[in-house]
Amino acid sequence: MAAGDMASTRLGAGQQHLHPLKRRGLVLLRLTAIVFAVLLFCEFLIYYLVIFRCSWPAVKTPTDAGGLGTPEPVLRAMFLADTHLLGAVRGHWLDKLRREWQMERAFQTALWLLQPEVVFILGDVFDEGKWSSSQAWADDVGRFWKIFRHPPHVQLRAVAGNHDIGFHYQMNTYKIKRFEKVFNPERLFSWKGINVALEGDGCDICSGAEAELLEISHRLNCSREQEHRPQECGDGQRLPASAPILLQHFPLYRRNDANCSGEDAAPPDEKYTPFKERYDALSQEASRKLLWWLRPRLVLSGHTHSACEVLHGAGVLEVSVPSFSWRNRNNPSFIMGSVTPTEYALAKCYLPCEDTVLTTYCTAAGGLVLLTLVHAGLVASPFHFGWNMLRKFKTT
Q: The whole model's pTM is what?
């Protein structure tokens, strides 16, 4: 064989050898691109796509109703509940990592898109605060501020839940004080002429906190009736003349969730389960005291992990806010409130359903497996298979 023929033979063999390698490289590149695109969608973009649909509800102001003068200031508030950050004892590390990543992305996306002025968390911020050690508590608090970091102009307030400090028979001064050291202990928050009363485990209204609530009640009543009873209110700092919004962890007393409706209400098998007083809801006595002393225009609560709307007494609306954690719900959400000194409007903002994310991952995994099998020649390409079937159909 001539030298030229041998050289050309070797060159052809090399090209044939390089061709499969090039094809493998292209397939690997495609697989990597698909994996990256799916991760980008499920772990980042889906939060923007879902929360972008949410908007602040419109609230009536005196100028809207044809009044004169400057419009009332509107406070934009976000209400979350039951984040349940896992501690050192309960929950697998992967579950903890996953749930905290989900909440961080949801919260940071909501901050960026919606620009709230204040964020309220309605208790059970932590899952193991009722028994965690000092070191475990410090670790949990550090992770909390990483997840719920916010710019200085946004205020964040939280009330204590039973998982933060224990039920009334488990709590002690040490647990209460360390929670208050992290979150502002003030039980009355006023901004833009709006009063917000914050209550945690309502069972402590049976103890020394009752005197503090009575003082808050006195100040609120004076703010609303200062023109008629100035001698009873003294010369102290006056609150805005606005009926308060009551925020608390436990819902006011109700028998069960039988009258609750909506896609994020309690499941049918739980709706008719009777609530235990001081465990699932406040006692009837505590509920009557709060409504009588504070005379709120709106109540928001957590604890049940499900949504509900209840009318109390003379038409006072209570809204139970569902859990913000995917560990407790497939479809978490939060409440957006536009509030003025005299009016309020609420809207619910749903977060991505976990079923949607899991379905996307499973579909992508199936596609990757199919693409790999097609490349390996173990399965015919769906395109070629369909084209061959069409040709056979035409010839027949």
A: 0.85
